[in-house]
Structures are given as structure tokens and as C-alpha cells.
Amino acid sequence: NYSNRHIDEPQVVPLPSQQQILSTPHLSDYIDPLPDSVNPLLHSRYFHPTEGFWLSDSDMVAQNIAVDILDPSSHTQTFFHRAGPRYHVKFTSDEVRAAIVTCGGICPGLNSVIREIVDALWYQYGVKQIYGIEGGYRGFYSSEPIPLDPRKVDHWHNYGGTKLGTSRGGFYLKKIVDAIESQGFNQVYIIGGDGTMKGAVAIFEEVRKRKLKVCVVGLPKTVDNDVGIIDRSFGFQTAVEKAREAVSAAHVEAESTPNGLGLVKLMGRNAGHIAVHATLGSRDVDCCLIPEVAFFMEGQGGLLDFVQQRLAENGHCVLVVAEGAGQELIKKSSSSSEKDMSGNPTFDDIGLWLGKTLKDWWKSKHPNELFALKYIDPTYMIRAVPSNATDTAYCTLLSHSALHGAMAGYTGFVAGPINGRFCYIPLDLVANSKHLVDVDNLTWAWVKSVNNQPDFIRKEQSEQEECVQ
Ligand code: ATP
Ligand code: MG
Fold first, then answer.
1. Residues near ion ligand 2 (Cβ under 5 Å)
2. pTM
3. CA 193 – ligand 2 centroid, Å
4. Residues 433 and 237: beta-carbon distance below 8 Å
5. Are 101 and 57 in contact (CB under 8 A)?
6. Type and span of the H or E element at 304
7. Nearest residue to 89 (alpha-carbon basis) of 27, 152, 45
8. Separation of CA 160 and ligand 2 centre (Å)
């Protein structure tokens, strides 16, 4: 009856739906009593909060916005606590001793996040004891915390990287929590990727076990945009913008010579979001290769076949490849068990491998025809820039959301946007989630349609599929 609508007779059709609240952990779950204070923002020089300014625990954000009304299982709604200032807080300004740490690889926006945490704690909440932990997790037990104030961090957002330094490895739980305890930190802001968030979960659990009044807050960082649950992570939009410049350069190079082939390798170990969005945002790409979609080189319908066709039709061709794509094609040059200091498997360079394979192929197939392959790997240029305007604004909201939550006593949470509104999400949920490019949905269909690129299905495979049908 959904299709029998009459414009002059609006219908309200009730739907059966399931609802669940994902409660954010709170200090009061294990500390009793935990007295309230009135939020210092009430008396702030800078704020004149109106009644609607304050959020309460009943303010929630729903996760699903697109549902299939004919499929009751898709109506299940999960609600998350909305981020923002609470009228009552669990810390007084003088009591707070905050620590900020950055771990893992660098990403545009790290310095903006640090700066905004410092500024907002200082100006909004009157907190004066704010410290930076240098060099990642190991900094908790191997160096002295450095005092931070708005003056010190004033220009930090204009720089790429992290002014606090970062590292991989060095995660010794006991040493870290001992240091948190002995330094008297009671709000710990941890900025980093998936590994860092797993570490933050362990710190939160240990702190809870020791019944310490310490809020552990995660601020997810991944330029690849592969964190689950949240809409997107900071640095991603900056990365796409810079990636587009590389694609554009590859296109100009390719167009300028006979049989010109531009090849750009972009970040994305598990998820090809940067490659996808740079492709959609530039419109100069002939084929986008991502970790979520397998491809093959030789034989009918393979990548070489496709490149041959594009060169014949247009005289040039541009390929974008995400770093995690086609790993299974590379005859491992290094031992497959090689790991970095944090225990992550290292990747073989698909860009170099593809470039060499394409050059060798052309030379053997068309030895007397001109050909030029221009390979661009802009990875470190992209990672090292400061955040753009959109990401900087995101970093500000993210940081404010995080510290409003800590001041209110929430802990073991990640701050991040869900459907455009910042929320508090349990840390372990985010640490164990991944956001891959959904190749069954419209975005990937969109990529294929703008590039007119194939699905890379082997002939035998498609015949088999036809037989099954
Ligand atoms: P990215 O991969 O985006 O650069 P990341 O946070 O995943 O960021 P890693 O180098 O994997 O970067 O980890 C950062 C820190 O987190 C390191 O100090 C590492 O020892 C620690 N870490 C990684 N995985 C875990 C884990 N499972 N449990 C505890 N700590 C971890
Ligand atoms: Mg990682």
C-alpha cells in the first residue's frame, strides 16, 4: 500500500522496528560516589549558553537513515549518545590533568586536533594542567610530559605531521598505566589509527580494573577513512584533494606523449576510499584498482587487455591503484611474514610492480611503438600536509566533542560523526570495526560507470557463474 499514496491524503504507516541504545561507558559505572559540579562553561567569559545549548544523556543519534521499509530487519535502530556539553560535569577545572598522545602514522589534521584540545580545555573549561606525551605510547614511560598551553600550540594547525612526534610499537600496558597513575593524569586523549585504538581499549580496561578516575578518550585517525561506524575520519578530505593533484599530473603527462600511460599509487591498505574519491573527484581516471576488488593482468578481460584498448581508443590512459590492491599478484619480493614495529604486515609495492609489468608487456608486444609510463607515488606528500579547511573544522568539532564527553565523565569512548552529528561511541566497537568500500553499492557502480571500466571477471569464471544460474 506504500505505492497507493494520494497527495491530498497523507498516510501514516506504522512500521515494526527494533530499537537499541549503545550506552557509552561512564566513570560512575565503577566509581561511587562521583559528585557533580556545574559546568564551568556556564560562567565562561566566552559563552552565554542558552537552555538549548546543553545536551543530556537522552540526546541520541540514530545510526540507520536509509532503510528498506519492506524489510523489517533493516529497521533495527541503534542509538548513540550525542556529543556536546553537559550541564553537570564530573571534574572541576583545577582537578583536571590532561595528557595528549599521537601514535601510528602521520595524517593531515593531527596538529589541529592537539591544538583544539588544548585551546578548548584551557578557554572553555579553565583547565591549566595539559601535557603532551612525546613520541607515541612509549613516551608515557620514556620521556617527561611536556606542558602545553594555547600560546605554545598557537600555530600548530598550520603544520603537517604531529608536533608531539609519533611512533610504532612500544606498547607496554603496565608501564603506560603506571605512568598515567604516577603522573596523576585523569583525562587521556589518544589520537591514532586502528592499532592505537586497540591499545586505548586495553588502557581503558586496565584503568577500570584499577578503579582510577581516569577518562580514556580515543580520537580516530586514519587518512584511509577505513574506521567503521563513523561517517569519515579527519585528513581524508585533504588526502583526496591532494590525490586529485597527482591524478591530474599523471593525466597531463599521459596526454602529452603517444601511448602515454599515467599510473598513480594512492594510500589504502585495506580500503580503497582515497582511490575511489580521487577518481570520482578528478574524472581523468580510466581505471581504479582497490583492495576490495580483485583484478588480473593477462588474458581476455584482464588489465593489459583494457589498457591496450584505452590506448588504441584515446592515445593515453590513467590508472589509479590503492596500495593494498593486487597484493596476491605480486610474487613476494620480501618474506611474507615481515612485520613493522607494531606487528602490522608490510606491503609489497603494487605501484612499482604494476609499472614494471606494464613496461615489460608493452616492450614485448609493441617493440617498435613509442610508449611512456609516468609513475607517481604521492603518499608522503599527501600524508605530510596540514589539514584543509573542511578537515580543520572537523578536527575542531572532534576535539570539542571529545573533551565535553570526558568532562561529563564518559570514558572508554571514541568521538566521531554519525549521520553528520558527533557522538560518543564505545571504544572497543570502533577499534574492532572496519569500513571498506562496499562494492555492491552505488558508489562503486558510479566509479565503474564514470570510468567505463570492467569488472575483471575471468571468462571461465563468468561461464561458471552462468552455469550456476
Ligand atoms: P596507522 O596504521 O593508521 O598508521 P595505527 O594506530 O594503526 O595507525 P600502529 O603502528 O599499528 O598504527 O599502532 C600504533 C600504536 O598502537 C603502537 O604503539 C602499537 O604498539 C600500538 N598497538 C597496535 N596494535 C595494538 C594492539 N592490538 N593492542 C595494543 N596496542 C597496539
Ligand atoms: Mg593501522
1. 193-195
2. 0.93
3. 5
4. no
5. no
6. helix 303-314
7. 27
8. 19
